[in-house]
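From the methods appendix. Each design record in this collection lists the tokenized structure first, followed by the designed amino acid sequence. Records were kept in a plain field format so they could be parsed without special tools. The example shown here is representative of the layout used throughout.

RECORD:
FOLD TOKENS (259 positions):
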């Protein structure tokens, strides 16, 4: 399987719409994990798609307005042009706003410490996989023991999947991801409101500490910290205090089970 040299808009839309075969899907996911600009573009398109569904899914049950039928009967295609132009302009503005907001709020002016770089990679992975409607995880949560054994072997450290049921989050599963050439694990959880959080784990980085560090970017928040031989990052799209509550649950559960 040859890695792509670039990613076209057609490939991005095929990925979002679930039209890629398994080989192509893996290639695109690997590319997105390493290219935050394209990952942000995917995030913006997926956001637009969900908004369009929320606004217009009901329209298929509605009768066609008489004025539209009149336009069809009168065979006046030019009458459609202004509406389509307005729709296209709206989509362009939506995309520009979403992508511009993503990068406008980024890490400008912040020191590019190893921790900041790590949590940025964790946020990028969350963007790519948490919004994937077809395959957000590689191994389903029903095979949790198999998943943990496999990822522990790849990272060279014993991993555990925190229990977040007390906060209403069900374990979805996980996957192996690349983190600057090293193996990392991504575990995903979802609550009854379809909110997803991802726990990104890699071997501990030198110079890290056990304090929770916080990053916010375009509606996404992430906390990261060191715990023994591993570094963790929990990412989600929710208020800071809500995610901090989950971070404390993750930390306390991992510490209690390790002791």
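DESIGN:
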């Amino acid at each position: 399987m040859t890695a792509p040299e670039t990613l076209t808009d057609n490939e991005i839309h095929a990925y979002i719409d679930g039209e890629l075969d398994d080989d192509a899907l893996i290639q695109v996911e690997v590319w997105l994990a390493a290219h935050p600009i394209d990952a942000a573009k995917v995030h913006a398109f997926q956001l637009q798609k969900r908004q369009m569904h929320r606004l217009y899914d009901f329209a298929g049950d509605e009768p066609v307005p008489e004025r539209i039928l009149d336009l069809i009967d009168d065979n006046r295609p030019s009458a459609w042009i202004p509406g389509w132009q307005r729709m296209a302009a709206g989509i362009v503005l939506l995309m520009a706003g979403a992508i511009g907001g993503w990068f406008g709020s980024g890490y400008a002016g912040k020191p590019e410490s190893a921790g900041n770089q790590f949590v940025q990679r964790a946020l990028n992975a969350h963007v790519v996989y948490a919004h994937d409607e077809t395959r957000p995880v590689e191994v389903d949560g029903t095979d949790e023991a198999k998943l943990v054994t496999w990822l522990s072997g790849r990272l060279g450290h014993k991993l555990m999947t925190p229990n977040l049921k007390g906060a209403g989050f069900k374990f979805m599963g996980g996957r192996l991801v690349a983190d600057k050439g090293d193996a990392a694990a991504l575990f995903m959880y979802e609550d009854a409101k379809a909110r997803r959080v991802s726990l990104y784990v890699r071997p501990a980085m030198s110079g890290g500490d056990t304090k929770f560090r916080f990053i916010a970017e375009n509606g996404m928040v992430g906390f990261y910290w060191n715990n023994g031989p591993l570094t963790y990052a929990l990412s989600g799209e929710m208020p800071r205090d809500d995610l901090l509550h989950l971070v404390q649950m993750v930390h306390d559960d991992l510490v209690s089970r390790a002791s």
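APPENDIX NOTE: Confidence is low (pLDDT under 50) at residues 74-111.
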